[in-house]
Design goal:
DNA-binding, homodimer, two-stranded antiparallel sheet, mainly alpha, 11 helices
Chain lengths: ~250, ~250
DNA sequence: CTTGACCCTGACGCAACGTAAGGGTTTATC
DNA sequence: GATAAACCCTTACGTTGCGTCAGGGTCAAG
């Protein structure tokens, strides 16, 4: 007395659900949804139970679960709701993390695009270089530090930034000269250079020791920054460090 | 007189950059980054140019470009900045779309998780069913309509919603009975049922014809909703439609 | 009996590598 | 100078969720 249950062939089911035949084949192959019957010729015949399961699969897919997770969710259906809650919460956490990451990506690209739109003629070489430096920074600084740096740059203003960027190479050239001459770090000339150096760092970092530490890590691990050989910069940094130490010592002895 | 340029073996370069040897092999194979030299034993030897290019690749990867896009960006470096701008803007648009989609996903999962946490003991079967219905709704309603529906539900209150959910099956049972008896749609009993039907739809849709249309599409294309056979519901809907039409006709003749 | 419209299985392709397998090279140590 | 540890090489399959043929049966209509 059973009412001749409806059966679907793959193509019919595919059209009805908006999926492709290939997708249904795939679900069959991996055992996620196997038709409850086959015709004598081997045609897949899906029953109402199968259609219901397919609905569930579609829904869970829409929520971004993998086929494997869906299988577990559907097969562990006997389990308590709490275990499902855990699965969903883990999934949610992963998703949120992804969203945050992509959000950051968007921000970065936005900044790059803005720069590109502003300068009417950016040499491609320079653009790529700036991208490299941007992302390099972002590997060494925490998001909070980057925000602080952005604020700092705004406070300094475009012009002062250009001044500083012009100042650095000059300063480094002078330091290099003294190093080559073998001038003692306690020499007044070196002391003056050390003060300028310290002031520039201070200006860039805004006095934040965390940012200074990140900057140090960056120079320790990258081989080139702004086209400079970091080995040379590190040597200078050490020299300047000795100069500053010598000065402090001199003060404490006074 | 060239200063014995530094060369890296794969493992060294991998350690220095934090990538894996396999990744460098991969880049070599696909021609994205081929070491400028090989040792006599066939060892890959990367020069400074190679390292620079790798930096660029890493940076662009961090921005989410595919290896293919990176190759194009780096190889078309002669091209103007504008073409790069276009690439970046397209990428940005795609990313933003992704973020929006994932944001929506998060919202949906959030709602499900909230429900799960609230009800201390949710039968897994029911949970999955509610997920199915939720996502089904979201396939048929536009985001704006969904928002409107959410507001509507809030306005009605939990209790009224439960009342309505209890009311529907009773009403449908009565309609089915009249249909079976073959009562004419213009019969006063059917007219009363039609009015109750119309009122419930009105309450759910908030009188929005767009939402009513989406609801209709849903019942036309899905085979089961809330465990009901939609074919039966469609038949009832048509019957009620005739009843309402008959009434309007009666009025216009009056 | 031949179309066409279905259906089947099998297998390669995609992105960006991970993970062996099987076998040479260098380098340090005994 | 032998041996072992640490590297390096190429080849090739696995991953995710299907898309896209290829080669070949099945079924209803004309």
């Amino acid at each position: 007395m059973q009412p001749q249950r409806k059966r679907w062939k793959v193509g019919e089911l595919a059209r009805a659900t908006g999926l492709t035949v290939r997708t249904l084949h795939h679900y069959d192959r991996i055992g996620l949804l196997q038709p409850s019957a086959r015709s004598s010729a081997g045609y897949r015949l899906y029953g109402e139970q199968d259609v219901a399961r397919l609905q569930q699969i579609r829904s869970l897919r829409q929520l971004g679960f993998t086929l494997e997770q869906i299988r577990e969710l559907l097969d562990r259906r006997g389990g308590d709701g709490a275990s499902h809650l855990r699965v969903i919460e883990m999934h949610l956490a992963r998703l949120r993390e992804q969203v945050r990451a992509q959000q950051r990506l968007c921000d970065r690209l936005e900044r790059i695009a803005k720069r590109l739109r502003a300068a009417e003629e950016v040499p491609a070489e320079e653009l790529i270089q700036s991208i490299v430096e941007m992302t390099m920074f972002e590997r060494y600084y925490t998001p909070e530090q980057l925000e602080q740096l952005a604020k700092r740059r705004e406070a300094l203003g475009e012009e002062r930034i250009r001044e500083v960027e012009a100042e650095w190479p000059r300063l480094m050239e002078e330091v290099r000269a003294e190093m080559e001459k073998g001038t003692d770090p306690s020499d007044p000339r070196v002391q003056a250079l050390a003060q300028r150096w310290r002031a520039l760092i201070e200006e860039f970092t805004g006095g934040d020791p965390g940012i200074a530490a990140s900057l140090k890590r960056l120079y320790e691990q990258e081989t080139t920054v702004h086209g400079l050989d970091t080995a040379a910069v590190r040597a200078m940094g050490e020299y300047i460090g000795r100069a500053l130490a010598a000065r402090r010592e001199g003060e404490s002895h006074a």
